Amino acid sequence: MTTYAIGDLQGCHAEFVELLETLDFDPRNDRLWLAGDLVNRGPGSLDCLREVEALGDAALTVLGNHDLHLLAVARGGAALNRKDTLDAILAAPDRERLLDWLQSRPLLVRETLGGEDTLMTHAGLLPQWTPELAATLAAEVEAVLRDERGGAFLERMYGNAPDQWRDDLDGIDRLRAIVNVLTRMRFIDAQGRLDFAAKEGLDSAPAGFEPWFRYPRGDDVRLIFGHWAALQGETPGSRVNACALDTGCVWGGSLTALDLVSGERTSVPSRRR
């Protein structure tokens, strides 16, 4: 059995199918970890949702910011953005089943693979959080999304405040802070304060901020993440065991899979200009 981790699909269904064929992926024996953002911006968001949902237990996917945006539009009253490509999902006859499935996905997965303690979230892991604390906090949000509070939370999920985690946060501020760390984080300062404006490469860091993976941790957990296409799968200057997997397929780059035991990477080129 082989376990592969794959970066952000963002509606790149044709490339996803090609990558699975290149890997000779067999859902009866192999497994996938998907780093979130299955949907949006690309042309095949509905097909991506259906493809991954149909894989059943062979696929583990975490929620990304674009996945949560879809849920916020469909069930939280948020407006579509001009560049969104979510209309086909919202109009699909199996829409509610797919949305139920997506809303039940976790924000974090963790297993020992290839002898390494391996943890995946969409955006990374705050250096101030242990893996155990991160799993506990992710479970708080997951519990809200999976019960009758989900719609009310999705209505109030968006916002940049608070921009720093505190243990005494409660209510919507606590849930929003957890979501922002796990699905939106790129640059932080030494105290763990998040910057939400800079979204490009490492040279776009605001003064006093660094990529989250350049701050040391007290453990050697292997951190699998997507979200940051401008990194092109690299983490230069990293002081932690981090593996970036978003190689910008939707922007004309490639779609990349990482064998979580051997460490081998396999990519297929984007079909988008």
UniProtKB/TrEMBL annotation:
Pfam families: Metallophos. Its EC number is 3.6.1.41. Residues 1-125 form the Calcineurin-like phosphoesterase domain. GO terms for molecular function: bis(5'-nucleosyl)-tetraphosphatase (symmetrical) activity. It comes from the Bacteria. Keywords: Hydrolase. It catalyses: P(1),P(4)-bis(5'-adenosyl) tetraphosphate + H2O = 2 ADP + 2 H(+). PANTHER family: CYTOCHROME C5, PTHR40942. NCBIfam families: apaH, PRK00166.1. Hydrolyzes diadenosine 5',5'''-P1,P4-tetraphosphate to yield ADP. Belongs to the Ap4A hydrolase family. This is bis(5'-nucleosyl)-tetraphosphatase (symmetrical). It comes from Halomonas alimentaria. The lineage of its organism: Bacteria, Pseudomonadati, Pseudomonadota, Gammaproteobacteria, Oceanospirillales.
